[in-house]
Amino acid sequence: MKKENKIQEGKASLVLGLVVNLVIPGLGTIIFGEYETGMIQLIGFIASTLIFFSNLHEIVNMAMVLAVIVIWIWALINGVKVLKRK
User: Fold this and answer.
1) Quick one: pLDDT at residue 39?
2) What is the pTM of this model?
3) Residues sharing a CB contact under 8 Å with residue 21, sequence separation 6 or more, in sequence order
């Protein structure tokens, strides 16, 4: 019975990581234990978001929107891969 509980807890934490990746890309990847990839995703997401909300030229803002979307999708795909592996 304890083994089943551990498996359920493990799956729950993986699902939590995936949900967190939906809200803050990279943070869920860190929860999965992939620190290097998660930090790259998180720093990229934060930097792109900050640049987007600054008063830079519109072309730069459009590039940052694209960067945020790409990083978000990358974090979600990575989360699903980790979920399938474990």
Assistant:
1) 93
2) 0.64
3) 27, 28, 29, 75, 76, 78, 79
